[in-house]
Design a protein that fits this description.
Elements lengths: L6 H6 L11 H8 L2 E7 L5 E10 L2 E4 L1 H4 L4 E6 L2 E4 L2 E5 L4 E5 L21 E6 L7 E13 L2 E6 L11 E3 L5 E8 L7 E5 L4 H4 L4 E2 L20 H11 L2 H14 L4 H13 L3 H14 L4 H14 L2 H14 L1 H13 L1
Helix pairs in contact: 5-6, 5-7, 6-7, 7-8, 8-9, 9-10, 10-11
Length: 336
């Protein structure tokens, strides 16, 4: 269904659209592991979604697809198989479906630890409840949460694709398509594949509707959502003072998360408190030397101050992370 903290990157074109389109044969083979979900509601009608086969007789989907279900079936063409049991991790919005007799390609599991910003990824799901569709995109951000990293990307998807798969360049599953925030082209989120592993060894329970009070992290009231998700919404709406306050609280509760510091720097930048922003960007690159947005902004700040040596260093670091953007920035600074 349709956030993180890189609007400076977006404005600067740091999140380009260069995709490494997957090999067609690999795409077809991987697509065989993605099935349609039909979840029948007790009040009538169906919820439609997608699921990825992650082990023999097991497929993962989002709990928000199946939460009201009295019965669930997986479909691919004429094949229609009944789900006998479910293992639910409602907080992470992942439900493992137990499907005896399921004979389908098992997706190769990857890791979000191997992902980087701007890396190309492919989404596969039954968007709109229609046929299987693919969407090419790029990683926008990787948000730390519960021992893994929620993947934010530009891969377009909507109702029906929830529970589908996000795959890396090797067509390894790295995430489960979960939700989107409205209001932008980069607000698509996938649950990290690492959250699936504990479900594989857990027992399932018979299919039944979930209690209404059981909600996923992204469905919680705003104040109870993870900091990164609150930050995404504040950035999207340009609420910079609130974003600064959030970033300060975030840093106090998780001093090891570099995203808290880059979020604070961004808020200060947009509030035109440039001296404070510079200090925050400098702390950010100490904590995370791969923070391209921080090197980008520091190169601009140092150049404006006439500090050629530090500007050159920042540009060199940016060039190592993103040569195209560094080249564009060099040209921009020469013109200014």
């Amino acid at each position: 269904m349709k956030g993180a903290s890189l609007p400076l990157l977006l404005a600067a074109g740091l999140l380009g659209v260069a995709h490494a389109d997957p090999d067609r044969e690999a795409l077809v083979r991987t697509g065989a592991s993605v099935l349609k979900v039909e979840a029948q509601r007790p009040q009538g009608g169906f919820s439609l979604g997608s699921a990825v086969v992650v082990a023999p007789g097991r497929a993962v989907t989002n709990c928000h697809v199946t939460r009201d279900s009295s019965s669930i079936h997986l479909r691919r063409g004429e094949l229609r198989l009944r789900v006998e049991a479910v293992t639910a991790d409602v907080g992470h919005d992942l439900c493992l479906l137990h499907v005896p007799g399921l004979r389908a390609e098992v997706a190769a599991l990857g890791s979000t630890a191997s992902l980087q910003r701007k890396q190309s990824v492919t989404a596969l799901g039954f968007t709109g409840g229609l046929g299987l569709q693919s969407s090419n995109g790029n990683v926008v951000a990787l948000h730390r949460l519960d021992g893994a990293r929620v993947v934010q990307s530009t891969n377009w998807f909507t109702s029906g694709a929830s529970g589908g798969g996000l795959f890396d360049d090797s067509m390894h599953l790295v995430g489960v398509l979960t939700f989107r925030l409205r209001g932008g082209e980069v607000h698509y989120f996938a649950a990290p594949v690492e959250w699936i592993t504990p479900l594989l060894s857990a027992e399932g329970v018979p299919v039944a509707p979930l209690p209404p009070e059981m909600l996923a992290y992204w469905q919680q009231p705003t104040s109870r959502q993870p900091a990164f998700l609150q930050a995404v919404a504040l950035e999207r709406d340009g609420r910079w003072a609130e974003l600064e306050a959030l970033a300060l609280r975030w840093g106090e509760t998780d001093a090891l998360d570099p995203e808290a510091l880059t979020t604070q720097a961004l808020a200060l930048d947009r509030l035109n408190r440039l001296a404070e922003a510079q200090q925050a960007w400098e702390r950010a690159v100490v904590m995370d030397p791969t923070a391209a947005n921080a090197w980008y902004r520091l190169a601009q700040i140092y150049t404006r101050q006439g500090d050629r040596e530090r500007a050159a260093t920042a540009l060199q670091r940016l060039e190592a992370l993103d040569p195209d953007v560094a080249r564009e920035l060099r040209a921009q600074l020469k013109r200014s």
